[in-house]
Design a protein that fits this description.
This protein has four helices and five strands; from the N terminus they run αβββαβαβα. It has 140 residues and is of the alpha/beta class. Strands 1-2-3-4-5 form a five-stranded mixed sheet, with helices on both faces.
Amino acid sequence: MQQFIIELGSDFAFLARQKRTTIDGTDYRIDLLFYHRTLKCLVALDLKLGKFRAADKGQMELYLRWLEKYEQKKGENAPIGLILCSDKSDEHVELLLLNEDRIKVAQYYTKLPPMEVLKVKLHQAIEIARHKAEVKQLSK
């Protein structure tokens, strides 16, 4: 657990594992709950063993609303959610408007992909970053 938190960065503070929430008599559990010092908000992390599903967004939205109502302190920003799954569909993420929401989806790897796949992903990430930087410059 300590290694995982260190990977997230030094601004994350661990709050809970399997944080219990009860809504209308039904128990739910947020896999991991953090506080991010710079963002000044709670960060709910949901770990999925399988592929990202549309229902996962609804579950995270429920967690975020519960955190807003019962855990968020005065002066803090609204909580954000991160769903880590073994596979995701970019089209699902796009259609569910997750990039415009306080919920992000990321894919994790149980083993490193081949070097060629890593190179392609790195180049894609660089191109996306360049494009965002250009758009930002044009909007100024």
